[in-house]
Every structure is written in C-alpha cells, then in structure tokens.
Design a protein that fits this description.
Blueprint: E1 2-4, H1 9-18, E2 24-26, H2 32-38, E3 45-48, E4 58-61, E5 64-68, H3 73-78, H4 80-85, H5 87-94, H6 99-104, H7 107-113, H8 121-126, E6 130-135, E7 138-143, E8 148-150, E9 153-154, E10 161-168, E11 174-181, E12 192-200, E13 206-214, E14 221-222, H9 224-230, H10 237-250, H11 261-283
Parallel strand pairs: 1-3, 2-3
Antiparallel strand pairs: 4-5, 5-10, 6-7, 6-10, 8-9, 11-12, 12-13, 13-14
Helix pairs in contact: 9-10, 10-11
Length: 297
C-alpha cells in the first residue's frame, strides 16, 4: 500500500486531497492495526499523522478548553486542567484500556473510530463538545451530537481530518462524571457507560442537565427524557431512582458476547444513578482557578 508521513497539517491535507479520499489516516493505530492484522482490512494507503505535533495540546482560552486531535488519552488523564474543568473526560481517560494503549491512542482517533462503546464519547457529549474538521482550503466546526451516524460511521468526508476538539466553559456550579461497567476495570470495552453533567442554581436545584449513554445504542446518545426529568428539581434519592429508570428506557442495547440486552438495560439505570450523584457532588464544589492559555499538561 502507499504510505506517507506528512510533516505539517497542510501537507497532510494535501496528501488526503490528492488521494481522492482512498487513504486511511493513522495516528495511534490501536484499533486500525488490529483491523489490518486480524480482521482483513486492506487500506489503499496510510497517511501517518504522528509527526503533526501542532495537533498535540490541551489549553484554555476565554471560550473554554481546546484539545488537539493528536493529544494522547494518557495526556488527558494527566492534565490538571481537564480534571478541573472536564471531570467526566478525566474519569474516562483514566479507565481507558491500559497505560500502554493510553500512551498511543488519541482523542481524535477515538472520535474518528466512532465505536459505540468508546469511553471518551459520552463525556464529550454531555460537555457540549464540538469538533474542528479541516480539508484542503477550508475548515468547519460540528457539534459532537451531530458527528456520529452509527457504528464506526461519522460525518467525516473523504479528504477531511479532525484537528481539534472544543469544550465550552461550563456554567458556574457545574460538575460532570463518567461511570462505566466492564468485567475488568481496565482493558475491557465498556459494557455500559454513562456520563452526566449537572449545573445547580443557588438553591441547589438542577438548572441544566446533560446525560449521555454509551454501548447501549448504535452510537453514543444523549438521553433527553432523562434530562427533562431532572431539570428544575432537587436531586433527591427519589429523583435519582426515577432518572435511572427513565435512562434505561432510552437505551436500545443489543445482546452480544459481552452482555445481554437485558443486563445492559439494568446497568444503564445503575450507572446513571452513580454518575448523577458524582456529578452533583462535583457541582457543589468550588471550581479551581486556571490561567487562560495554560496548556494544562
């Protein structure tokens, strides 16, 4: 196959454009190499973007957090800025596979693969993240909620490259959390993953709620009925219990070798309750201060 290792983003976009969309982008390769070696995938060409250090960063600006597409999952797990501002992402990054995989896997690669069980995807959904996508001569920004189309399917077009993920600054008194279930705490794919983000008003009522589910639908999904149930109310034990049941009703899981649909539905309720309690606790804590422009590493 053809192989190219561009030195700049512009060169990478030029190569992708000249190839007519036939080339496959490789970054960490933690999924792609498995497909090539064991699943019979034969790309027409590989564009290795690992030399594009300009896409490795975690920084804050007046509008929120900006994360370069080649930022490794381990860098997300280690970044104080991510832990302080985007706790759900930090939760997910720390439980993502093994340290060896985290050092290779990238946030852009995780989004591009669009695995329904991807750990980083529900946290980014509840934080209202968007994706910057470049092609030769143009660039666009897409809300992450509109990015996924199905299992390993996204809106990315031939010749396009994910360059950056943007997370807007959460309102004051906001907190987020991610809870997952797998047979081993790390290494295994999530059987179910639930992320939530809550914003509380001065009286402790839920002013804004975001809940997202992973591994229980063809793509990571928001849970709008659960969010509507929560908003405007105090997070009592009764409300937490009810929210878990509503979230379970919004899941459409399948049965496979890792779990039955019935078990996934049950665990959706359990993990929603855990995530909501943790997010509410985080929302009640004072937010640490960071200087805008710091890279957070």
């Amino acid at each position: 196959m053809d192989y190219c290792r561009p030195a700049t983003v512009d060169e990478a976009l030029s190569v992708l454009a000249s190839g007519g969309g036939a080339a496959t982008v490789i970054a960490g390769g933690t999924d792609l190499l498995v497909d090539i070696k064991f699943r019979g995938f034969q790309p027409a060409g590989l564009v290795n973007v690992n030399a594009l250090d300009e896409l490795r960063f975690v920084r804050e600006d007046p509008n929120g957090i900006r994360i370069g597409a080649l930022t490794s999952v381990q860098s997300l797990a280690d970044a104080p800025l991510v832990e302080a501002r985007c706790t759900a992402v930090s939760d997910a990054a720390r439980r993502f596979a093994s340290r060896q995989v985290r050092n290779l896997a990238t946030i852009g690669g995780s989004l591009g693969r669009a695995t329904p069980a991807g750990d980083l995807l529900p946290p980014l959904l509840v934080l209202d993240a968007s994706v910057r996508i470049a092609r030769e001569g143009s660039e666009r920004e897409v809300a992450l909620a509109d990015f996924f189309l199905g299992p390993r399917r996204t809106i990315l077009q031939p010749g396009e490259l994910i360059t950056e993920i943007r997370i807007p600054t959460p309102p004051p008194r906001s907190g987020s959390s991610y809870a997952r279930m797998s047979y081993r705490d790390v290494l295994d794919l999530a059987i179910v993953g639930v992320a939530s983000c809550l914003t509380l008003d001065a009286d402790g009522r839920i002013e804004r709620a975001r809940v997202a589910l992973g591994a229980v639908a063809p793509r990571p999904i928001r849970a709008p009925r659960t969010e509507a149930l929560l908003e405007g109310r105090l997070l009592t034990d009764e409300l937490v219990e009810a929210a878990g049941e509503v979230a379970a009703g919004e899941a459409t899981p399948i049965s496979d070798q890792r779990a039955s649909a019935e078990y996934r539905t049950l665990m959706t309720a359990v993990l929603t309750r855990r995530s909501l309690r943790a997010a509410a606790g985080a929302a009640a804590q004072p937010r640490p201060q960071h200087q805008p422009g710091g890279n957070g590493r």
